[in-house]
Request: fold
Amino acid sequence: MAAKNITKYTPGFNIHDVKKKFDIKKVVKLSSNENPFISDRVTKYINNNKHSLNLYPESKPSKLQSIIAKNIGFKMNEKNIILGNGSNEILEFIARLTLNGSTEAIIPKHSFLVYEIISKLQDARVIVSKPDLNKNSINYLGIDLDSVRNKVSSKTKLIFLANPANPTGTYIKLAEIDRFLSSLPQKITVIIDEAYYEYLDPKKDKSAISLIKKYNNLFVTRSFSKIYGLASLRIGYGISSEKNIEKLKLYKQPFNTNLFAQKAAEIAINDHHFVNESKKNNDIALADLISLFDKLSIRYLGTYCNFITFEAGKSSEALFEHLLKKGVVVRPLINYKLPKYLRVSLGTRREMNVFKKHLKSFYNAKV
Ligand SMILES: Cc1ncc(COP(=O)(O)O)c(C=O)c1O
Reply:
């Protein structure tokens, strides 16, 4: 039995295993919401420089923190920022700071699975709020803030909200988040996980970072794994008041982010051309896939990220297997309590064409 009744996180299939199992040469991996592109400037840095691999990396990469602060705006400075081995690590630090065996964490249904795992590792009780069940809303199956509010008890110490959310792809307006935060006791810490924030359109005034000076109990997390294309290097960051960040740093190992991650993050965040191209590619792939889903009368959830979660109904498992045999890996969502849905990440034009071809062949569609 797994310790503490925790279901282990299952990552998307890895390319090597699929190649071997089905004896396929080319695999299209659309299961982990990665950016299909890498910044040329990052590649050049990795390939063309001498790296001091024998030395520890910067323990306090203040240059990167300053660059991030400048980039995110809202009068943040380097002391408002903590770097993590992926934003995952920041989520973990916050759970460790706030939760223990006599506390509760509220997690909206269909949330990123890591929230539950790290809360249970702290022995906290996990309270699951209801999703938005309005079928006519673009927030369908996304976060219902009223339900979250109703779950608050004297034991609540932490609330996780992803905005936009994975795997539902839904987004809640900042004014609603603001209203929600103003209704909460300050002793409850709230995380707004903005791993997919950069895919919002337009981004301006949509980030909860703008609320950090107003709410002392607020943490925002961001990732370099998505639009910045650095998933493999593992780097992300958390933003909060200087005092909160100081507290969180107690949990950070001295060298939690490595040299390549730090340097590549510096380069990628300033490579505006790359970020714009990534966003453009995502927008095109998104519009194109929505158009196909509409033609095939396939229902899909929120469309604010670099993936789409779509309804495959009873055929969900069969469609997953069909795609897998053709070398296309998407994500089944049984662990997320969405067994009738599959999630597909938005890849390159070629990758999307392969996915669309096999999706159409499954449904015998001639569109
Ligand atoms: C909602 C959400 N938060 C956080 C993460 C973790 O990202 P990172 O790679 O920065 O640890 C993911 C990764 O898929 C995610 O979907």
Summary: The radius of gyration is 20 Å. The longest helix spans residues 272-295. Residues 33, 86-88, 112, 162, 166, 193, 195, 223, 225, 231, 236 surround pyridoxal-5'-phosphate (CB under 6 Å). The chain has a mean pLDDT of 95.
